Amino acid sequence: MKLLHTYTNGNYNVKIYEDGTKIRMTEDEYFKAEFPENIDIKISDKCDMGCEFCHEGSTLNGNNANFDWAFLNTLKKGTELAIGGGNVFENPHLEYFMKRCVESGIIANLTLHQNHFLSDDYHTSVKKLQSKRLLHGIGVSYNPSQVDLLIEKFETDENYKRLKNNCVIHVINGIHSFEDIMKLSNMNFKILFLGYKQLRRGITFLTKHDFEIQQKQQEIYDNMDTIIKSFKVVSFDNLAIEQINMKRMFTDEQWEQFYMGDDGQFTMYIDLVKGEYALNSTALNRFDMKDNITEMFQHVNSLRQ
C-alpha cells in the first residue's frame, strides 16, 4: 500500500495509506489530538434531488459556501475532508477549493448522490478532478432503484472501474433495506453505514414512515454478520454504530483496535455555507466560525467531556 501522509497530532503519530487504512501510534495509554484528523465539511445547500429524508434540508434554492474563511489556512497536512452538500458540484468554486486543499497537503474526498454520480455531466466533472490529481476518494449515496445501472457502470466502463477502489457506497440505516444492500454483495464494493438522522426533513419523514424505518433497521441489526461477510469493507459512522449496537460483535480487544473514536475526539463538522461549526452534523449547538482550526477543534473536543 502506498503511504499518503504521516504526521504527528498531539501525543501520537498517524499513517494514512492510499486505500484508506489509518494507523495511530502512541507511547501513552491514550490518544490526545491537537487538531482534527477528519472534518465533515458542507460547501453547498443547493440540490435538485429533494430526498424526503435529507437531514440537511437542501433545496434548489439553497446557497453555496465561499472559501474566504481564515481557518482554511490553518488546516494541517494529512487532514481528511469529507466534502459534501447538498450537491457539491453546485458550488462554482469547487475545483478551486480542491486545488487549494491538495496544495496544502489536505486529502479531499467528495460525497455525491448516485444519480449525479451516474450522469454524464457529473462524471465528466469527476474525471476532470481526477485527471488533475485533486480528488482522492468518492462517497456515493446509494439509490437502489438504479442499482443495475450502478453495477453495469462499474463492470463495463473503464473510467468507473478505475474509481471503484477509492469509492465507498453510503447506505442509511432505516432507509435502505437488507435486500437493497445485498444487491451489491460479493462484488468487491466498500460500504459505509450512516445512522438515520432525525433532523430537518428527516424528522418529517420519520413521522410518516416510522414503522417501515424500524423494520428495516431491525433487518440490518439481525443480518449484520451476513453483510460484513459480503463486502470488501464495511464501515460505520458513530450514529450507525450506536443504532446498530456494533460493539456487540467485537471482543473488548477487537473494539479497542478498530473503534476510531467518539465524535469530537478526532473529528468535527463545519458548515461553510452558514459559517458554523459543531461536534457533528446533527448537533443542535452550532458556533460561529473562528480563525483557527485548532481552536475550533479544541472547543468541540471539550463538549464530549
Written overview of the protein:
With 305 residues, this protein is an alpha/beta fold. It has one domain. 33% of the residues lie in helices and 21% in strands. It has a ten-stranded mixed β-sheet. It has a three-stranded antiparallel β-sheet with strand order 1-2-3, with no helix packed on it. Strand 11 and strand 12 form a beta hairpin. The longest helix has 22 residues. The radius of gyration is 19 Å and the shape is globular. The protein starts with a strand and ends with a helix. The model has no long low-confidence stretch (mean pLDDT 96).
Shape: globular
Q: Overall pLDDT, averaged?
A: 96
- Which class best fits the helix and strand makeup? alpha/beta
Overall helicity: 25-40%
Strand elements, count: 13
End-to-end gap:
36 Å
Q: Which residue ranges are poorly predicted, with pLDDT under 50 across at least 5 consecutive positions?
A: none
Calculate Rg over CA atoms.
19 Å
Largest sheet: 10 strands, mixed
Numbering strands along the chain, what is their spatial order in the largest sheet?
A: 10-9-8-7-6-5-4-11-12-13
Question: What's the order of the H and E elements?
Answer: EEEEEHEHHEHHEHEHHEHHEEEH
H/I helix tally: 11
Strand content range: 15-25%
Number of domains: 1
